[in-house]
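README, section 4: Worked example with a bound small molecule

Sections 1 through 3 covered apo chains. Here we extend the same pipeline to holo records, where the ligand is supplied as SMILES alongside the sequence. The molecule in this example is zinc ion. Nothing else about the input changes; the structure line simply encodes the ligand pose together with the chain.
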Amino acid sequence: MKGEVVIGLEVHAELNTESKLFCACPTQGEEEPNTRTCPVCLGHPGSKPVANKKAVEHAAKLAMALNCRLAKQVIFSRKSYFYPDLAKNYQITQYEVPIGENGSIDISGKRIRIKRLHIEEDPASMIHPGGIGKAGYVLVDYNRSGNPLAEIVTEPDIASPEEAREFLKALITLLRYLGAFDPSKNIIKADANISIKETGYKRAEIKNITGFREIEKALEYEIARQKHEGISSQETRSWDAEKGMTQLLRKKETEEDYGYIFDPDLVPIDIEREELEKKLPELPDKKRRRYTKEYRLSEDDARILAGEFSLAQIFEKAVEKTRPVLAARWIRGELMRVLNYNKIDTSEMKINQAQFISLLQLLEKKKITDATAQKILEKLAVDDIDVESYVKKEKLGAVSDLRMIEKYCREAIAENLQAVSDYKSGKDIALNFILGSVMRKSGGKADPKEVKETLKKLINL
Ligand SMILES: [Zn+2]
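The generated complex, written as structure tokens:
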């Protein structure tokens, strides 16, 4: 049965390789337009493509990580179309035999099926000075042309914009675990098919949504638009991130219009499944199970930490030097709170791992209090500070001098006699009030447990 909203995604993830998919031109570097090009990626007649082994390996590993049926051979096809973004007049892609089929990703207890995964080359970028529709001419930059992409096509199993974002995050996590994608240099784009119940599920396709945050916005906009305006027939639309709206491009071509043929210049490449399996890293599911077993984390903590490449990375570094439960609690609780507050996505955090770990160590040795650690973490999330010298310089070390704590406690008792008598008459909560006063006096640097004990001792004398 179809839900209120039906979404399918076609995701293009740029694979992390040094050179392009079919030539030796670098994928990154020189930004001057049309400098990272050669006869192959410019489509000169007679030039011959040679497939990039690394790109094929990334894609094959991804197929396995997505639980796909892995093809025995990589076979490339030509997708013919006439457009300036492909100098050859065809794109080398996979059509008849994709490298992976029938896979899945699980998100929040729900399975999103993967229809197919294939490798293809990126077209050139087209620059419309002044914007699409207004420009009197178009510029083409072939630097990107020929970069390796993995295209991941889902079944229409996604039921909301949030699920789409969650799916993309899970996919990026897998890609990062595999080393196949580096968010600091590789781009992820998606086309989304979306239909809603109110219009009888007439489909619109939104093209070229860049980045996983934009996808949620584009889908939210399109759902509202379809509810409001309806939809006449199958439409292809574009997402304008600046204006925050989708715009009609054209009616959709069908796949057959492209006239696919096998590429005669590229021989099939055998996929060595056993060899590749040996090279597969520990993936999120396995990590999650290990975290609960080896480190005794709760199911929930393990799922969150293993489900995000950067969190798993910092957690595994931290447990080499501190208690796992402490590290998990601080990463999931405080670190994520601080990142949220600063609107930094966990996948984009640049926190200094060594400094974060030294913060945990100070905390574990009770050299700073929880309250102090929280404040330092707020600073560390946005600024690269040396935690130990910062604690010294700002005199943030915990007040562990019992005489000082006792002095503060005596003062607080003298100033809060009503609370003291309330506590004595059985109102336990009154003690927290006095505790608060001591914590203020110590500038949050006393250990609340120690203070509580001291207060009880002094009051019961
Ligand atoms: Zn080239």
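What to look for in the output: The longest helix spans residues 212-229. The two ends are 71 Å apart (CA to CA).

Section 5 describes how to batch many such records.
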